[in-house]
Amino acid sequence: MATSVFEVDCHVHAGAERRGVALQQFEAALRERGIRCAGLVDHAEFYIADKPRPFVEALRGAGCPYAENADGFVAFCGDVRALRASSDLRLACGLESEFIDRTPQDLLGPPDFVAHCFKVRGDGKDFGVEAAERIRRFAAWVRPSGKPAVVHHPFRCRVLAYRELLARGEAPAPERFITPDDVRRIADAVGEAGLFIEVNLSTVHSIGDSPEALALYVHAVRLLIAEGPRLTLGSDAHGTAGLALTAGMRRAVSETGLTPAHLQAACDRLFGGTCAA
User: Which CATH architecture has domain 5-271?
Assistant: First the structure.
């Protein structure tokens, strides 16, 4: 078992947005950070014909090293597997899809695991109900592939919505904005489908200098851990610089109570065993 939760990072973007950085440089950066197990992922939207505008913009000037179609994603997965064969790190390749209705099923074949870029704010709706519905849609979509599947950054959009309310002086108490019932519905949907769900470090970075929003995120993750779903930890790094751990990230994870034991199922299923050195 890993001796620190920070030896595991299941969410590192290392494909179309590499901007000239070789995968071997990612490997070196992972090792320098003390990471033993890493999920190297890319957005499905870079490789589909009907690219949403934000992904078209992201590719401009990025120097994408792959063809912007299914063959390109196959090449990315092949590069990760070639690196894995020569590395002492445990590496897996993943596909992250936000727009699952636009992502063809044949893209689910090449990767080791599939993830959903989860974006639910709960504006005008019950957050827990809407989130659980979205998770069940993702589960139904990914099920035919038989691949391990992860819900990425489940609370990010909700927490950022809370930060907006704070700025307007309209925010309720944290325990009323993400409730135990909300998290229970999310955990039930994840558990029913046998999915993993992520504790996302970039959410801490996105919160900025708002202690109230950070308290909400820690509150939500604590509730999630208590519900007992299978967890992953991800930096959501886009580039090697994003792998750096801030003091705020370390403190937030410590306050959630996340331990290496919570990540062992991810080590077993995504990486084929222990993440210890």
Answer: Alpha-Beta Barrel (3.20)
